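Milestone M4 deliverable, item 7.
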Amino acid sequence: MVMSKKGEVVCVTGASGFIGSWLVHLLLARGYVVRATVKDLGDERETKHLEAMEGAESRLRLFQIDLLDYDSIFAAVNSSTGVFHLASPCIVHQIQDVQGELLDPAIKGTINVLKAAKNAGVGRVVVTSSISAMIPTANHLGDAGEGCWIDEDYCRQKRGNSAFMYSVSKAAAEKAAWRLAEEDGVDVVVLNPGVVVGPILPPLLNTSMTLILDILQGKEFPEHLFMALVHVKDVALAHLVLYENTSAAGRHLCVESLSRYDRFAQHMERLYPQYKLPRFHGKNGPLKSNAASKKLIDLGFQFTPMDQIVKDSIQTLRTKGFLS
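Output delivered:
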C-alpha cells in the first residue's frame, strides 16, 4: 500500500551528498517538509545548492550534525515522522585512521540515528547501505541477494585496502541497524545501491563519478572490479518507494545490471568511441540483468536503462567541467 505523505516532516542525514541532494530535491518536489543534515553549515559547498532548490525557502531546514554526537542528531530528527539515513563516510582511498575516519562514523553514527529516531517517536527509517555489504568482489556477483553478506573477517585481513574496509563499514552499520530494529522496535527498511552515477547536483565530484572519470581517462583497474551501476535519480526514488510503501520490508538491492569491468567498458566504448578506455585482459564476464533487484521491481519500480545512465554521466561530467 502506498501512503500519501505530502506535508509530512522527514529528516535526511547526509543531505548535501550525491544521493542525498537528489533525495532532498525529490522530497521537496513531492511536498514534504525536509530537515536536512550537513557536516558544516558554514560551508557553501554543502548548503548553497540545497537552499537553491524549489520549495527550499519554505520547506527546508538545515542542521549541522556530527555522527558521533547523539544530541546533534536528535535535534535534527526530532519532530520528524520519518528518517532517511544516508550519512556515512565513503572512503576508498588509503587512510591512516580506519577506525576513527571510517568505521566509527558509519557504525556508531547509524546507532545514534536509530536511537534518536526511537526516542523522537519516528515511524519508518530508511537506511542506505550498499551492495558492498553483500559482495566484496566480482567473483561473487551472482551471490547478490537479500540473504548475502560479505565475509568481514576476509575483508579485515585486507585492512590496508580501504575499499575492503568500506565494505566492512557498510555491513557492520547495516547489521547494527537490524539489531536495533529488533531490540527497540524501530521500523527499519534498507536500500543496497550499487555504484551510483549520473547527474551531479553538489559542486564537488563524488567517489563513484570519479570512478567513471578515471575509466574515461584510461586508468587501469584490478581484475576484481565489477560494475553494478544504477542511476542516482533511481536511487533517490527508491528511497521514496521504500518509505511510502508500507509493504516494503527487509533489504533491497538497487542496481540496473551487474557486469565485470571489461563488459561495461565495451558498453561505454560503443557509445563514446572517442574515449580510449583501458583494456582488461581477464576473463570476459557477461552482463547480467537486474533480476537481483526483483523486490524493488515488484513494488512497481522501473530502472533507467544502461545507455541513459552512461549518457547522463558523461553529460554531467562535461557540464561541470570535469571532462572535455
